[in-house]
Specification:
The protein has helices at 18-34, 64-71, and strands at 5-13, 39-46, 53-61, 88-91, 96-99. The protein is an alpha+beta fold. Strands 1, 2, 3, 4 and 5 form a 5-stranded antiparallel beta sheet that branches. Strand 2 (39-46) and strand 3 (53-61) form a beta hairpin. The longest helix has 17 residues, at 18-34.
Length: 108
């Protein structure tokens, strides 16, 4: 398959830390990702119940080469700057990848 690749990474964050995690990501991580050729967007999903809260970070990329530019030679490896680590109670050591085969938006 060719086309958009979705990188899925999952972790657990204390529910009280969600807003700080998001703000730190926006301020300190997102600008670096946006500067990479091939980065399309990011979505954070939080499970509605539980504490710590199960989260999914879905990043969309133009291709695997763009992901390698972000994550290094092993594109599945967790990319976790030291300043972000304290937010996580646990996290996946590796990401998983999905091919985007359909994306539709509402007709306004």
């Amino acid at each position: 398959m060719t086309g958009v690749v979705v990188r899925n990474w999952e972790a657990a964050v204390g529910r009280a830390d969600i807003d700080a995690w998001i703000n730190t990501f926006r301020d300190r991580v997102l600008p670096n990702m946006q500067a990479l050729d091939g980065f399309l967007d990011v979505t954070f999903l939080t499970k509605r119940d539980g504490d710590p809260c199960h989260v999914k970070v879905l990043t969309r990329w133009r291709n695997m080469a763009a992901i390698t530019a972000f994550a290094g030679d092993n594109p599945a490896q967790t990319v976790l700057p030291d300043f972000m680590a304290p937010f996580f109670k646990s996290y996946d050591a590796e990401a998983t990848f999905y091919d985007e085969v359909l994306r539709e938006e509402a007709n306004d």
